[in-house]
Design a protein that fits this description.
Layout (H helix, E strand, L loop, with lengths): L23 E4 L4 E7 L15 E5 L1 H11 L5 E3 L1 E3 L3 H10 L3 E2 L2 E3 L4 E8 L2 E6 L7 H14 L5 E5 L10 H11 L3 E5 L2 H7 L6 E5 H8 L4 H11 L4 E4 L5 E5 L2 E8 L10 H12 L11 H19 L9 H7 L3 E5 L2
């Protein structure tokens, strides 16, 4: 049974889920307690007094879930969580409006620390500890219970050390078996293995794309991912925006008309969140139409930019999204 597993997040007895409502499920294979330390500056080798520290349940999939919750979308978060602070992790997710369906683990959840200065961010990231095979089997089983026809499964982030490189593929297999939609934001061999199950969209950045298709050109990388099995691909290019390749749609780019300054950590997670929201087929959207993709990329850029304006990942302000939505240019790439 998942930590704090909700009846409306499961499909077995007692479900109060409304028939026909699409569920968005995010999976974070390597969750973390994310701490953000805003400082006016640092002096290596000296002591620094911390006036405020923000700590939250994090990891890429949790960031996706947090952004969806900020913008009023129902979302279920899954992944292995353990250690003496497991309940804190669950309670933080719940407090942010995220439905928790975490898999209990005997392994303590890792930590990350971001030192935020006016002109730079410095991150200290634990790799995490190996998870027992039984935890991964439980997680895959939980996803099989959560995800059904038309639902959206978003898998984001790295794998802990020694994790089998077929884990992402196993999760995609469960989603593919019930015709759920899948969004993948991971890289390397685990992503390559998962492409056999034709994920709905692969959403990664330029650096991650190189680890999969050995191309630093975002347009070529997106086309290569589709040729390898992805139904569509969105490549994040930092301040340069997004590139998208999808069947029957011209190759598109989307970017802000004017750059903004802020904290880019989690901007790619906001792109994944926007894609998950737009792939919610309960609205009857035609995901193979150019107009749908234009609208989706506009939302993805505005959500990503709104995330940059926040001091930490996993949050956006509705007012920022609305304002930024009008400052985006979308072009066809020949």
């Amino acid at each position: 049974m998942a930590l704090n597993s909700p009846t409306h997040g499961r499909r077995d007895g007692g479900s109060v889920r409304t028939i026909g409502v699409v569920v968005i499920v995010t999976v974070t294979p390597n969750p973390a307690f994310d701490a953000s330390l805003p400082l006016p500056g640092t002096d290596p080798g000296s002591s620094h007094r911390i006036e405020a520290m923000l700590e939250r349940a994090g990891g890429k999939g949790l960031n996706v879930a947090g952004i969806l919750a900020c913008l009023g979308r129902d979302v279920v978060a899954a992944g292995p969580v353990g250690g003496t602070r497991a309940n804190e992790f669950v309670q933080d997710a719940r407090a942010r409006g995220i439905t928790a369906a975490f898999t209990p683990s005997p392994v303590a959840t890792r930590r990350t620390v971001a030192v935020l200065e006016p002109d730079r961010d410095t991150l200290f990231i634990e790799s995490g500890l190996p998870q027992p095979t039984s935890v991964w089997n439980d997680l895959v089983g939980e996803i099989a219970q959560l995800v059904r026809l038309g639902d959206v499964l978003a898998v984001s982030g790295s794998l802990p050390p020694t994790t089998s490189e077929d884990l992402i593929a196993r999760l995609c297999e469960r989603a593919h078996a019930v015709d759920a939609l899948t969004i993948l934001d991971t890289c390397g061999v685990p992503l390559l293995n998962a492409l056999d199950y034709h994920p709905t969209v692969v959403s990664i950045n330029e650096r991650e794309a190189v680890s999969v298709v050995d191309s630093s050109d975002p347009v070529r990388a997106a086309h290569a991912l589709v040729n390898l099995g992805a139904r569509s691909a969105v490549i994040s290019c930092g301040a340069a925006g997004l590139v998208a390749v999808a069947p029957g749609v011209p190759t598109l780019s989307a970017a802000l008309t004017k750059p903004i300054r802020g904290n880019p950590t989690g901007a790619g997670d906001a792109v994944t969140a926007a894609l998950a929201a737009c792939f919610d087929l309960a609205d009857g959207a035609d995901v193979e139409s150019p107009s749908w993709w234009r609208d989706t990329l506009r939302k993805a850029v505005s959500w990503s930019a709104a995330c940059v304006l926040q001091p930490g990942a996993g949050f956006v302000e509705v007012a920022d999204v609305d304002r930024l939505n009008a400052t985006i240019k979308i072009e066809e790439i020949s």
